[in-house]
Specification:
Order of helices and strands: HHHHHEEEHHH
Largest sheet: 3 strands, antiparallel
Number of strands: 3
Shape: globular
Bound molecules: manganese (II) ion
Length: 203
């Protein structure tokens, strides 16, 4: 099969109390697993089944019409969640340092200003979607949101941090209180991983 569900790099209950164990089990084992299964079914027997998920999404316009929407939604879901698990950690929280910390200060004014903008992107996304920090097509750091499972890779961007604001990511613990979930989520952000992705993306 083209793509597989990655293991979490920590236990299902490791992000408690900020993200609860039951949410993590369902989110990874049911939602993410379903995206993997559906994108695999879509690309099976095509030239696209041997591509990386990143190349598949960057080249979404080359995917045939009859499977493009399925690949967009489920391939996007696979890529987005694969990043999401990696940029969280039970040892997370705090602030970015090094080159990323400097660039956030330069672009957004301060880490606090960045958090405000990112939270606005997350809470302002109507319905399901994601908020992102990443490099745009010109290599400039920016915060933005995408609807559904649309991946920034499809826009020629490189995401380095993302928060899932689908209700399945928070409803069991936070119900309708998406802003409270985003506030708590900062406590599990793995800035060392985000810094690494920034440095790789910047080249
Ligand atoms: Mn999700």
């Amino acid at each position: 099969m083209a793509f597989s569900l990655p293991d979490l790099p920590y236990a299902f209950d490791a992000l408690e109390p900020h993200i609860d164990e039951q949410t993590m089990r369902i989110h990874h084992g049911k939602h993410h697993a379903a995206y993997v299964s559906k994108v695999n079914d879509a690309v099976k027997g095509t030239e696209h089944e041997n591509k990386s998920i990143e190349d598949l999404l960057r080249g979404i316009d080359q995917v045939p019409d009859d499977i493009r929407t399925t690949v967009r939604n489920n391939g996007g879901g696979h890529a987005n969640h694969s990043l999401f698990w990696q940029i969280m950690s039970p040892d997370g929280g705090g602030e970015p340092s090094g080159a990323l910390g400097d660039e956030i200060d330069r672009v957004f004014g301060s880490f606090s200003d960045f958090r405000d903008q990112f939270k606005s992107a997350a809470t302002g996304q109507f319905g399901s979607g994601w908020a992102w920090l990443g490099l745009d097509e010109n290599g400039k750091l920016h915060a933005h949101s995408t609807p559904n499972q649309d991946s920034p890779l499809m826009q020629g961007h490189t995401p380095i941090l993302g928060v899932d604001v689908w209700e399945h990511a928070y409803y069991l613990k936070y119900q309708n209180k998406r802003p409270d979930y985003v506030d708590a989520w900062w406590n599990v952000v793995n800035w060392r991983e985000v810094e690494k992705r920034f440095e790789q993306a910047r080249g």
